[in-house]
Amino acid sequence: MLWHLLNKRLPTNEHRLIRFMTDSASCPRCTILESFLHALRDCTWVKEVWMGLFGISSHHSFFSEDLLGRISSNMLNSVTIEDVEWSFVFGMALESIWRSRNLFIFKISRITLSVVALKLVLLAVFARPGVDEA
Ligand SMILES: [Zn+2]
């Protein structure tokens, strides 16, 4: 997923409409144009994950800055917050948000994004790299 995102090939509905793979560029959750920014950060549903996961408000600078720049920066920097590797949590958040979107579209699961956020917190605490190596 990250490779597709960084190469601007993430198959959002906006991307799929250009390639005649769908008849609508709308977000399946809120009907706004589904760009990669919308799918991974700006959709109201997705904002709940970011706000819940990191305790930020909807007015935080994260929601207005260059997401691709933030991704590159976060994935390359090895920052640890409270013994958790930030790049790991950020990458898992993006992956989980995209997976939740796909499950929603294909009607396999109606998992709420607050559940996704909770799973990410648990993953960050209990399944981070190296936790079983001690
Ligand atoms: Zn949306």
What would you note in describing this structure?
The chain has one domain. It is built from seven helices and two strands; from the N terminus they run αααααββαα. It has a two-stranded antiparallel ribbon with strand order 1-2. The protein is globular and about 45 Å long.
Q: Biggest sheet, open or closed, and with what strands and sense?
A: 2 strands, antiparallel
* Helix share bin: 40-55%
The total of beta strands comes to 2
Q: State the helix count.
A: 7
Q: Taking strands numbered 1, 2, ... along the chain, how are they ordered across the largest sheet?
A: 1-2
Radius of gyration: 15 Å
The geometry reads as: globular
Mean pLDDT over the residues: 80
What is the terminal-to-terminal distance? 30 Å
> What is the quaternary state of this protein?
single chain
Q: Helix- and strand-based class?
A: mainly alpha
How many domains is the backbone divided into?
1
- Beta percentage is under 5%
Q: What small molecules are bound in this structure? A: zinc ion
Order of helix and strand elements from N to C terminus: HHHHHEEHH
**Which blocks of ≥5 consecutive residues have pLDDT under 50?**
none
Protein name: Reverse transcriptase zinc-binding domain-containing protein
